[in-house]
Write a structure and sequence with these properties.
The chain is mainly α. 67% of the residues lie in helices and 3% in strands. It has a two-stranded antiparallel ribbon. Keywords: Membrane, Transmembrane, Transmembrane helix.
């Protein structure tokens, strides 16, 4: 059964449940129903926090199995849920400040536990890092990143597969760049001009010619640097 999030449909659904619950023939007569008047955005937050709090125990059990091929997926899931928690952290201060406080509180109590965090650090090869959003307080749920050089992660990200793809693509780009350098040097006006200046320098040996060559080399190096940066930029974003 699928019910859309249109308010009138939801109201009718709860009305039908209320009628069924008071029927004498109803097997649910011992059950009570509570109507939650929540916006979809609030419901989604409650759902995400509640579900991850509940399924983590299963993930913890999976961590105990050696050579589990799903560990990487579980670790990414943990990292994203911690990041999500911090993105909504400042919205939820107390019971009156947000409609998902109960789920928020249970999530925080479970995942700021040092024992839980140490297991995640060990199994996922993660370490604590500063959060782009939310609080970085010691008693809060931390944001996570893969252990390693933070400067490289700033450039490439901390997904090992992504880093490998970037490096492979860069190695593919580097060959055309070297070819471009040879072509520019041998077959374009830039290369011809350079050879001409070299010949003039041999003939005259004047200081003015030497200054011209140095100035040309500076401009030529700047041109190549611009070409390389542009191609690396395009290759990086293509990944």
């Amino acid at each position: 059964l699928t019910i859309s999030n249109v308010n009138t449909h939801i109201d009718r659904f709860y009305s039908a449940l209320a009628i069924i619950s008071i029927s004498k023939r109803n097997l649910w007569k011992k059950c009570s129903f509570k109507k939650y008047t929540l916006k979809k955005s609030i419901f989604d937050k409650k759902k995400i926090l509640y579900e991850f709090t509940e399924i983590y125990d299963h993930i913890k059990e999976e961590f105990s199995h050696e050579n589990n091929s799903n560990v990487k997926t579980y670790c990414k899931h943990i990292k994203e849920n911690f990041r999500y928690f911090n993105s909504i952290n400042e919205e939820c201060i107390n019971q009156n400040s947000c409609d998902y406080y109960d789920e928020y509180k249970k999530f925080k109590e479970k995942f700021n536990n040092p024992e839980v965090l140490n297991l995640i650090y060990k199994k996922c090869n993660y370490t604590k890092t500063s959060c782009e959003q939310g609080s970085n307080a010691e008693d809060n749920v931390p944001c996570l990143r893969t252990k390693g050089n933070p400067f490289l992660f700033l450039i490439f990200g901390d997904d090992p597969e992504h880093i490998i793809n970037v490096l492979l693509n860069f190695s593919l780009i580097s060959a055309p760049i070297l070819s471009l350098f040879v072509i520019l040097f041998k077959f374009t006006p830039l290369g011809k001009s350079f050879n001409k200046l070299k010949q003039e320098r041999k003939k005259s040996g004047h200081k003015k010619k030497e200054e011209n060559i140095q100035e040309y080399m500076k401009n030529y190096a700047a041109y190549l640097d611009s070409e390389i940066k542009n191609r690396v930029h395009l290759g990086y974003h293509a990944t």
